[in-house]
Sequence to fold (470 residues):
Amino acid sequence: MATNKTYEQITVGDTAEIVRECSSNDLLVYAHASGNHNPIHLPDTDWTGDGHIDKPVAPAMWVGGLAAAVLGNILPGPGTVYKSQSFRFLEGAAVGDKLHVKVTAKEKHPGNIVVFDLSVTRGDGTRLVEGVAEVAAPTETIEFDSSNLPAILVQRHRHFNRMIELARALPPLSTAVVAPDDTNSLEGALMAAREGLIRPILIGARARIDKAAEDLGEDLDAFELIDIEDETEAAGRAVAMVHEGRVEAIMKGHLHTDHLLHHVVKADGGLRTRRRISHVFVMDIPGRKTPVLISDAAINISPDLNTKVDITQNAIDLALALGLETPRVGILSAIETVNPAIPSSLDAAILSKMAERGQITGGIVDGPLAMDNAIDVQAARSKGITSLVAGHAEVLIVPNLESGNMLAKELTFIAHAESSGLVIGAKVPVMLTSRADDSRARLASCALALLFKHWQATGAPAGVFDREGV
Fold:
């Protein structure tokens, strides 16, 4: 509860101070609230035009405006009304700076007027802002609970930006792109080629691919195009090119998943390995500190326990390739306790114990967990769950394809997540996205494939993920 000091209670010399760290989200919220879209204040922007992301400078008025948080919340506190203010901006603030915001009562005047000295300093003592504010202090005690203030969701997909940036530094993957005959699938492949992530070989009906290129205003002369009218035959040709050593990855275009996977999983001439093939969605959800991996939501319809072991290990391997050290894996069920009447809760408990015994490696595995207590700390605490995973899960293993597919699409279309997808367990990574996915989802899937291939080859990720931010 915020409690104020009335005019009568304030004494000249009274001080109050807060410490606030400048974040990228602060800059985005300020840009929307103020209407100031000056690119030097926006994160993830190349405002100098040199091809590199520039470090943003915090708007001076945002820094100075932090004084209002002290005046309005602490001294004098709730009920304070601004009359005037004067600022001098000495230096700029940057994302990550810890800002010390201090107000000191300087003068009291009739009519409940109080004059305050203001200052904002960086953690190293450098003064950024100094000034004076004149306010009308409250005359009655007011208490205010701000915990019910509506939250703001910033739709920002920083994790995919990081993945793409890491992948750009690696050699591109020669990739068979199957049936890229609509604008989304073709644009995704060409975008990934321009970013240096893949060297695409386009396989499909030339007439339809050329039409998609024409609609995009793109020229395909620089790319190899293998003209195969039938989509299933195109998928078979892509798999054959893996065995010939011509490509290191396969990318799904505008064809049904079954037509591609038929050739990937077939016993004779397919891409099977000793491990069961599974699909992993990687979701960039606004507000989450890490990406969230979901498996399996595209290939294994009703996996048994042995299949779930491989699904879990595949997902852990991809999380490690993304730079998540010792990823936290939640095995989902409808409840967080073992109930013989719910088979998924039994599987979850067994998978958790198998991980403890080293039969699943690389991550911390716990289950059964319900969705709420897997990802929300407060939900886990309210149910008395003590676990390194509960409330912090970064990998979610779902009971079956239906639940996983619904979860991934709910996050995409309701929680404004961006999605990408990769098939793990085959001889080469297979970039598997929905036909409805946009070009950015396909670009992120190419980055996934490249990071995973690098991890397989070197045993180390291209970069380690900072769980406290990028």
In short: The CA atoms of residues 203 and 226 lie 5 Å apart. The mean pLDDT is 93. DSSP finds 14 helices and 18 strands in the chain. The first strand starts at residue 2 and ends at 3.
